[in-house]
Amino acid sequence: MIPVHNEEATLRILFEKINHVMLQEKIDHYEVIFIDDGSKDKSWIEISDLVRQYPRLIKAIKFRRNFGKSAALSAGFHKSKGKIIFTLDADLQDDPAEIPNFLQHLESGLDLVSGWRKNRNDPLSKTLPSKLFNAVTAMLTGVKLHDMNCGFKAYRKEVLDSIKVYGELHRYIPVLANSFGFKIGEVVVKHHFRKFGKSNYGWERYARGLIDLLTVLATTHYLHKPGHLFGGLGLFFGSIGCLSLTYLIIVWFLNLGGMNLGPIGTRPLLFFGILCTILSVQLISLGILAELITRNVDSNYVDRQIAEILDENG
After folding, report:
1. What share of the chain is helix, strand, coil (3-state, %, to 5)?
2. Of the chain's two ends, which shows fewer C-beta atoms within 10 Å, N or C?
3. Are residues 15 and 23 in contact, defined by beta-carbon separation less than 8 angstroms?
4. Which of 70, 100, 81 is nearest to 31 (CA)?
5. Tell me, what DSSP letter sits at residue 265?
6. DSSP letters along 56-82, please?
7. Contact assessment for residue 170 and residue 76, using Cβ atoms and an 8 Å cutoff
8. Tens of pLDDT along 230-257?
9. This prediction's pTM
10. What single string gives the DSSP state of each residue in 86-140?
């Protein structure tokens, strides 16, 4: 499965590489799905030519405009029929020759295998923020992958049937899969220099990625215990507010004792302490309401965690 955005020069070369690997591995039943995510070049013309030439092997999806990589992957996941699904980028930086390595790791019992571009051939402006992103994500989610954002991945079909990908959540698929108990791992892959086109991603994606990381944390760690999230934040701000107001109360008593420390009614710290206390009450109340709502939604959550059932009685 290959999301495409302005990659007309690489598509035929990429398919030929994939086809060569499949012939070497003697894999006859496979399909390649190109998803044109609002390309403005001749990518769709190139994809259409490939479909006419290889109608049995290639499917194609075209978006009316650029909706983003998550939307492209989600559309491809929905149309795919295979039990094992690969994703890779269309820029030829991912090497299809690595496909057998992914298959070996899946056969060892893993449900999701993510590529690790250990020797990444990208400029420092991309590699440095990526390392910081991976470190922060691993620390907050507990999923210890070196290259979370690598587009070269292999999945078992049941992994993708269990999760929803939208917004910018494609880079957090391993975290979402891990939250459902699937076994994930990684494999070192070759990463080539980009010879054609230019990257479609800029610095703004890291800001979006931070917001999505908070979304992932909320929907994985706290989806069925929102009171812990909002209550924890409420207690944090409540503690700050109480400490601030306690300090001002002590200052007020010292003033009564004859020490001239000035009035406390005009101090910014008083308003800060009051605001923190009010925010604390609001967050704790929101947590309680969220817990009450959670009791009545997603009743099939436990069923979706079941991997296998053995019952002699049928």
Report:
1. 50, 10, 40
2. C
3. no
4. 81
5. T
6. TTEEEEE-SS---HHHHHHHHHHH---
7. no
8. 888 889 999 999 999 998 888 887 776 5
9. 0.73
10. EE--SSS-B-GGGHHHHHHHHHTT-SEEEEE-TT--S-HHHHHHHHHHHHHHHHH
